[in-house]
Amino acid sequence: MKQGTVVIIILMSLFLVSGCSNNYPLDIERDTEPRLVNHDENNIKVDSLSKIDEINEFAIYVGDNYYPVNSDYVLQSILEGRRSEDTPEDFPYPSGKIHYGDELTVFSFKVDDERGKGEIIYRILATKDAKTPRGVGIGSTLSELEAAYSDLKYEANWLPDGSEPEFNRVYIYEPEGSRVYIAFFLHNKEIVMIEVKEGSDYMPGSDIEKSNILGVTGVIKEVSNMSSKGAEIKYIFTNKSGEEEILLDIYARSVYEADLDGDGITELMVYLPGEMQSIRIYDRVDGEISYIDVNEKLESLASFGMEDMSGYQREYENCLLAIFQNEDGGQRMEVYKVINNELIHVGLFTPK
Predict the structure, then answer these.
(1) Model confidence band, residue 29 (pLDDT cutoffs 50, 70, 90)
(2) Of 56, 168, 216, 327, which has fewest CB within 10 angstroms of its CB?
(3) What number is the average pLDDT over the span 297-315?
């Protein structure tokens, strides 16, 4: 899969390199498919899918082939007969391989220690004919996914970048205490890609559904048709009848979600498309959603938020800057707060 910036490849930790004591072994004999050998069962090959599922659910099935993400499973070959490329050692991580199959990409590290000699899989990307041990796979619907995984997290920050497959929702299965996750990428409520990955020191799952977006809880965000100019962004919630409704549908360069005025409601700072930097603030006031177009309201040349506080005084947090033209031809920057969708002047911007 061509992920671009959508999913950042994060290498596994030293845990994968140094080995560990285990009850799984670690020699895997195979001709056309991976097989497990369990030393506790006198080296009997485990071919039963139900038995394998009990061992590790962080895996992908492609037909009868089984690909597990786990540092204890050592494979002698992966995607035999398909194209692969070596990845160099990058201390403290060992060298590895990337294996390319039929819309299946498997990332591995090479090992040669008490676990055995071969490769261990730390990441899998699948876009065709793949299923998880719970029977959810490419082409499964959102309702089928939610029925199989009741404890999903909504990932709000993974965005499409124009590469295939196109998606507009991502759900994460990440049990508490696990170092591995499964990411389900959906387009129009149907799974188009699955990623199983060792998360190391990074685990996804930024769920804006826990935030009070414009006075509504349980909101998810769909982003589609992304380009250099902007993207279609929808904020969606489930009503009391169990049906999805659109809370807000906008076209924007980006959106910053934050409680700008400390009233318990998460406002939206929307960066509008166009040559000039311009923002629009959406808020719920007296039960109604309204917005301020900052440049239009202030007659400013440009406007932008101060989300990144590095280099700014703390009192500027969640403020915005507006740029004005002076009579002498110069420019000045003024700081504003937003309270109940009204712009409150703070003063001339003076960086520390």
Answers:
(1) very low
(2) 327
(3) 80
